[in-house]
Amino acid sequence: MPPPLSAPAASVDAPPALLDCQSCGACCASFRVSFYWGEADDAPMGTVPVTLTQPVSPHLRCMSGTQTQPVRCVALQGVVGQQVGCGIYAQRSTTCREVQPGDEQCLKARRRWQLD
Ligand code: SF4
Ligand code: SF4
């Protein structure tokens, strides 16, 4: 999932990335992004701003904007498929951190957005 819009471009020494999250954002605008409620910052060790989330069940919350159609996480900045960033990158949930460029969820989201 995409780093902030202000994030520096990859180092010239870094190996070329297969897929560039900063010009994508499809996974943040395709699925419900839910996670254990304790990851929200109204819990002692939580980081995700609770004001950007909605309850899903007694044990789950999700990012606002990802529970209804058209899906778009409220923290996503920019234009999907052009230039995007996550407004809460350092505070994002484990669900967001688990999606990796090129994995099954990523490719499914990119297909939805016809980016492949
Ligand atoms: S769909 Fe894949 S390439 Fe696009 S932002 Fe998500 S992880 Fe990155
Ligand atoms: S919190 Fe950030 S990484 Fe997670 S879905 Fe929203 S915009 Fe994407």
UniProtKB/TrEMBL annotation:
Classification via Pfam families: CxxCxxCC
Top-level taxonomic group: Bacteria
Protein name: YkgJ family cysteine cluster protein
Species for this entry: Roseateles amylovorans
